[in-house]
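Subject: Sanity check before I submit

Could someone independently write out the structure tokens for this chain? I want to compare against mine line by line before I put it in a report. The sequence has 191 residues.
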Amino acid sequence: STSGDNYAESFSLDVMPFEIPKTTIEVPDFSSNINGFFAFSGIPLIDGGSLDPLRELIMNYPELRKIGDDVFAVGAWSSNEITEGGDPPPVRTAIRWVILTYNTVTGPNEWSLYQSGKVEDPELVKSFWMPSINIDSLGEVSLIFSGSSSHDPASLYFTRKRLSEPEFPEPIVLTPGTTGAQYGRWGDYFS
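---
Independent answer below. Compare away.
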């Protein structure tokens, strides 16, 4: 409510229960082994160093959005695309993404796979990692993530697609990097 001077006198948050049973959903195979299980320096960096991909953790909770009668959940994580050659294997990571749907009216009332895919460097040189994914009320799905290689400084990348499109277009650089990164860390927790 507001008083005469347009300042809120009180605030409230309405919470509606939303219970969905647990469902196991098959997605395409991927490797979460990024430079072994102690990946504190797995992503190649321009100055000859390397960056910490924070192992194989999913950095952000999946986001939910109700569009029409469907509820959509979007999620993204990093995956090592090189699975052979060395112990631990060399690293070139890509972004794996998934869109799940839950029909609240006509469906079987369970989660199902709507789409899934991969965003990777078309030249297969750069590593992409630490993704954050979002879906808006119009069904636009956005990805923002880090990317670098031994020839490309760590930079911030972005791509977006509609729910009706099967894949993300090639990402663009939002903020280019200029040099290496200090302390082996760059780009944590943006969303």
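---
OP: Matches mine. For the report I'm noting this point. The mean pLDDT is 79.
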